[in-house]
């Protein structure tokens, strides 16, 4: 995507690359007309799996929601599609690595604010399906604000009918694995449809790991991880000093 290092639509100039993954690249950009700084996520039109549309749908749902990441602009060029959104600061993985062992007070504040992020996402009809520390970040403008982001695996679980009333979509009986092995719920291991509760299980595992290692953190085989999750009582997860 070399053309990204030129002006995008004569408006957005790339400052630096922020990251890249299987589904696209993210850049720190600045609006050359008004100086606004933002994040631009670009996706090649030639790649097989296209997830930017889902990201756009979630961000459009967040329009006007206080404390949620906002869609600023979107568009296409000859070779890629892009969205421009609120610029985030460091993610929770980087923050906790920098701070080392965090205090109980900091843990509680992070847990509450990340839970609020998921509440906002669920209220607009989506489940995240990949809740983990690196998908939450502080605002570039204020460390008191935390955003949830990276909606490539997000799925709509509820929608509104012609009367503007919410209804829950029918669950699929068998689904593919979606998420991250360390944080996913037991339902994900069992290939069941994910709902809001599965985001909350992932959030709980994430909150524990912000302070102490999860009992299955050193494991990589899906069946073994599932077995340890099934055998670990919630009381043990909520006890500090896990090894």
Automatic annotation (TrEMBL):
<dbReference type="GO" id="GO:0005524">
    <property type="term" value="F:ATP binding"/>
</dbReference>
<keyword id="KW-0067">ATP-binding</keyword>
<dbReference type="InterPro" id="IPR000719">
    <property type="entry name" value="Prot_kinase_dom"/>
</dbReference>
<keyword id="KW-0547">Nucleotide-binding</keyword>
<dbReference type="InterPro" id="IPR011009">
    <property type="entry name" value="Kinase-like_dom_sf"/>
</dbReference>
<protein>
    <recommendedName>
        <fullName>Protein kinase domain-containing protein</fullName>
    </recommendedName>
</protein>
<dbReference type="InterPro" id="IPR017441">
    <property type="entry name" value="Protein_kinase_ATP_BS"/>
</dbReference>
<dbReference type="GO" id="GO:0004672">
    <property type="term" value="F:protein kinase activity"/>
</dbReference>
<dbReference type="InterPro" id="IPR050235">
    <property type="entry name" value="CK1_Ser-Thr_kinase"/>
</dbReference>
<feature type="binding site">
    <location>
        <position position="41"/>
    </location>
    <ligand>
        <name>ATP</name>
    </ligand>
</feature>
<feature type="domain" description="Protein kinase">
    <location>
        <begin position="12"/>
        <end position="243"/>
    </location>
</feature>
<dbReference type="Pfam" id="PF00069">
    <property type="entry name" value="Pkinase"/>
</dbReference>
